[in-house]
Every structure is written in structure tokens, then in C-alpha cells.
Amino acid sequence: MVVKHVEKPGRLLLDRRPSQEGLAWVKYEMDGQEVEVDLLAVELVAFMEA
Length: 50
Description:
The mean pLDDT is 94. It is globular and about 25 Å long. The chain is 0% helix and 50% strand. It is mainly β. The chain has strands spanning 2-5, 8-12, 23-28, 34-38, 42-46.
């Protein structure tokens, strides 16, 4: 899933378990950094199969 978080494009990491409900892991496209974020701050851009 392609997402946007704080205006940065990234991918939702479905193979990493978040530390609590309402959070998810995102890997930014620009620098490869992986961060755990609040899902309320994530915008779904595209839903594509890998």
C-alpha cells in the first residue's frame, strides 16, 4: 500500500507488528527510514499488490 505521512510518500509495512493498536510501520520512499506512526496521520494513496 502506498501511503503519505507528513507529506512524505512511503509504503505501509504489513509484515511488522505495531507496538499498539492504532499504529503502523511505514517505510519512507525517499530515504528508506522505517517509522512507527499513528494511523490517523497516514493517508492512503494507492492499494497495489506487490
